Amino acid sequence: MSGDGASVNDNRPLRTCVVTRAKRPQDELLRCVAQASPDGTMKIVPDPDRVKPGRGAWITPTLSVWEAAVKRRAFARALKLSTTVVDADPVRVHLEQKETDH
């Protein structure tokens, strides 16, 4: 077993959380993508099924990591957006719903 939580013999694709920098199998992280909204702002939306087009930013699916991503502007940096002003609330809402489901 390696120290980052992934087994040496695990063939699942690994992704890196843009906040914690932890490498994890992609099914343990949440993929987020940028979508332009009608008012011209960029929204960061969750892509739990990993099917939306475009560059993805992967985060550990917890509210504390989401808060750190917003504070550090990690979404804009990872998604290579030309603006640092983004609306990441759709990801927060998704994470809150996941927490209440458990």
UniProtKB/TrEMBL annotation:
Transmembrane spans: none
Domain YlxR span(s) in chain numbering: 15-84
Name of the featured protein: YlxR family protein
Organism in which the protein naturally occurs: Corynebacterium zhongnanshanii
Organism placement in taxonomy: Bacteria, Bacillati, Actinomycetota, Actinomycetes, Mycobacteriales
